[in-house]
Write a structure and sequence with these properties.
polyphosphate:AMP phosphotransferase activity (chains A, B); five-stranded parallel beta sheet; alpha/beta; homodimer; Rossmann fold; 18 helices; about 500 residues
């Protein structure tokens, strides 16, 4: 990967000066297309050993581009103060479509560093690279393009340069990303590992570009040219073809009976009032105790509620609410996205609500909207919702890896019970606001929702974040089952 | 303030049950008007001793209202982990217009608690209440209404109830806001202090409502009724009358010569290239050193750039950028607000970018937009920009109190120099994007801007955050002055 970069590459200062004005103009023209189209954002990852000029390239690009639509995205190594999942900080700073972000200290940083220091085993390192590849594929599919630049500098040369810095020959701050890697042993190791990583994570859509960095002019001109090429290719992308909005891509013969996972539920399950009062209090008390326990300070709880209209999401959340300290949880009702949310990948609206450790986030409808309502109502194409299963599994795996307990409920009722509840909402004054004419219309799509739920459960019920289908025909039974499930999962996780 | 609450207040369970459905319906109707109008948000502050039922009232309101437009805003006491200004967390969670937030642990919490524990002197306490009053007045004027409820409970009764909790008689979590206040001495002191505070901060627009809390039904019915009354009064507010969009409210006789603070500047100041190179490097180096010093870890730097078009904001920021570690600063170009920003008070868009300690935020145009472009271009009325001076002074005072160094620059050039630079932008290809026809048109408003700048400097150049007017006719002189000012201010602050 780094072979050709080890040879001398040079660009005359005069030649650089001569090419700079037109490169600059072309870059601006291309950047304006990105801004105008607002279809994509672009993140430029700049990596390489300390001394290769990561900060200098960043500053050069700032000199060339329109800085008003440019963001610097720079991250330190993960540290003890990060009390959210590792990927949260990257999500949080994703630039909106139309903008460019230049990133130092990307998601490659920690695995490369840890592996070079031998704090990470080879298998884990390869798994981390796999995760990164999937993450980058998701970004690309969701509108965030990547330009990955590796500044190559011979380790000896890098060492010489860094010595110059500490001796005060240079006045400018140098981003010392690799401070942990002292001495030439780990640094050589880093080089070898980086080469492997760059090879392994060079995909068709997001390849690494190795830029020889010994010569400043060559380095900057090359970085600028790569950026120009990337921006031009983005501008030339055809408008995405309208996807066929099919509610279900599986074309099975209609003679085959369709299976619904919901049909397996015994909706006659119920609880009498005394049992309900007792069990509800008991489960609330368990949840109170568990979320107040010292172990929960290093964990988190993320609960997603899905279900048919009128299945009892709100009233169940109300019972859960009473078990939790109001200072340490938030309920997030998921409605139409804001413009800040629309300008970023789908999962951004959920990532932004992931709480710190010791806290709970309750989602009243969730990231499963894409494979439920958006699929059934044809609000997005099969490419989008078809891809969402994997993206969601990755999202939940990242939460789980950061010690968050992810609990997901589908609250199920029969169509008859739903009709009965709708009618009740029509007659009881303070329930009327909960019913719209649309709710009645949606009932026609019941079979489509059943198919969507079945596929959703099959594809996203993982060991770390299994689905719990809740028989909610009897409200009391449903509520107790939800609270008990949460208490059990917490107990299991906190030991 | 608490006199009448000390007498017995009681509501029959049966009477409560009888009134609940219509109260609930009325609340929902009134809430929907708030949602529809989207003109205001409402924050319900619930205060009172532990045991009075703050959490219970919150849960009751959740049972009555449409929870999809309801947020819980709950805050712990300030702690060492808060490395932003004290008010930042309240700003961050402000609900958008159309929504209701119920707040426990509000901005009253820390002063009341500290004063009850005698950790705060009387004078400081009164000053804190003053600050709160101004903050609340700002919220009200900016579209955030407050309903402040004090749950009154006799201290002895509160003690008895809390003992019950610790003995496990109650299963529900109780928000223990006042855990620090153990024993009856501090608790009685808290009561007296709270009474003073409630009296002092009961203003016309945001009075305290004292609700006797010994009887659950009475308490909840009263809280619900107060909320209903408040929502109805908000709904009945007339549409704000369009303000006369006068660029300048001061109607002085035109025979009086107008004074411009900018006319006092000697724009002939300049630096030759050698001096420039040397001094620039020197000031950059000072800034690098100061922002990397251990003392800066408990401080922060907020820099605001304003100035005429083409005065050199971007190119100056570029020089500042090179002095800073890219991991620890962000530049925020201020453009049109997003819909999330428009749905909240004006300063919210700036508060959200205030960094943690140890970091720098650079604003390319800033919160002064309201008293500059918005005033001159008549984008808001004189009420709005007239009020902004005080709001901005409070904002900067809060930053300064939290150890942030606030540095503000107006980059000044002559109209002739601006014309020259505009023409240069027209001819140099890569500068063309920086010029729009609007820029030429804006030149006609030069005298209006001079008047606005003069008033702005007079009213917001404070000891803690003075304005620095920068003679930028000579770019080199201007850049060095900016960097030197930042270095001086940092040096002075960090000692």
């Amino acid at each position: 990967m780094f072979e050709s970069a080890t040879f001398a590459h040079h660009l005359d200062k005069a030649a650089f000066k001569a090419m700079e004005p037109s490169l600059r103009e072309d870059l601006l023209t291309a950047q304006f297309q990105l801004i105008e189209q607002k279809r994509r954002s672009l993140i430029v990852l700049i990596h390489g050993p300390d001394g290769a000029g990561k900060g200098a390239v960043l500053n050069r690009l700032y000199g060339w581009l329109d800085v008003r639509k440019l963001q610097t995205l720079t991250f330190d190594m993960p540290c003890a103060r990060d009390d959210r999942p590792a990927m949260w900080k990257y999500w949080r700073e994703l630039p909106p479509f139309g903008q460019i972000g230049i990133m130092l200290g990307s998601w490659y940083h920690a695995p490369l560093c840890k592996r070079a220091l031998d704090e990470m085993k080879r298998g884990d390192f390869m798994a981390a690279l796999e995760d990164i590849q999937r993450f980058e594929a998701m970004l690309h599919a969701e509108g965030v393009s990547l330009l990955k630049i590796w500044l190559y500098l011979d380790p000896e040369e890098a060492r010489t340069r860094l010595k110059g810095v500490t001796k005060g020959e240079w006045q400018r701050p140098v981003v010392r990303e690799w401070e942990e890697l002292k001495g030439s042993g780990p640094r050589k190791r880093l080089l070898a590992i980086s080469e492997d990583a760059a090879r392994a994570t060079s995909t068709e859509t997001s390849p690494w570009h190795v830029v020889p960095a010994a010569d400043e002019e060559y380095r900057d001109a090359m970085a600028g040219s790569l950026l120009l090429e990337k921006l031009r290719s983005l501008a030339a992308e055809p408008e995405p073809a309208p996807q066929p909005l099919a509610p279900n891509p599986t074309q099975l013969p209609s003679t085959l009976p369709t299976f619904s996972i919901l049909s397996t539920l015994d909706l006659s399950k119920s609880l009498d009032e005394d049992d309900y009062d007792r069990q509800l209090a008991q489960e609330q008390s368990r949840i109170t105790r568990l979320t107040n326990s010292p172990r929960f300070a290093d964990a988190g709880l993320v609960v997603a509620f899905e279900g048919s209209d009128a299945a009892g999401k709100s009233s169940t959340i109300m019972r859960l609410r009473r078990a939790l300290d109001p200072r340490h949880f938030r309920v997030h009702p998921i409605a139409a996205p804001t413009d800040e949310e629309r300008a970023r990948p789908y999962l951004w609206r959920f990532w932004r609500h992931i709480p710190t450790h010791g806290r709970t986030a309750i989602f009243d409808r969730s990231w499963y909207g894409r494979v439920l309502v958006e699929r059934v109502e044809r609000l997005c194409g099969p490419d989008d919702w078809g891809r969402a299963y994997g993206e969601i599994n990755d999202f939940e795996a990242q939460l789980s890896a950061a010690n968050y307990v992810v609990v997901k409920f589908w609250l199920a009722i029969s169509p008859q019970e739903q009709a009965r509840r709708f009618e009740e909402r029509e007659t009881v004054a303070y329930k009327r606001f909960k019913l719209t004419p649309e709710d009645w219309r949606n009932r026609e799509k019941w079979p489509l929702y059943e198919a969507a739920v079945t596929e959703m459960v099959d594809r996203t019920s993982t060991r770390i974040a299994p689905w719990t289908l809740v028989e909610s025909e009897d409200k009391r039974y449903g509520r107790v089952k939800v609270l008990k499930t949460i208490a059990d999962r917490l107990e299991q996780a906190l030991g």
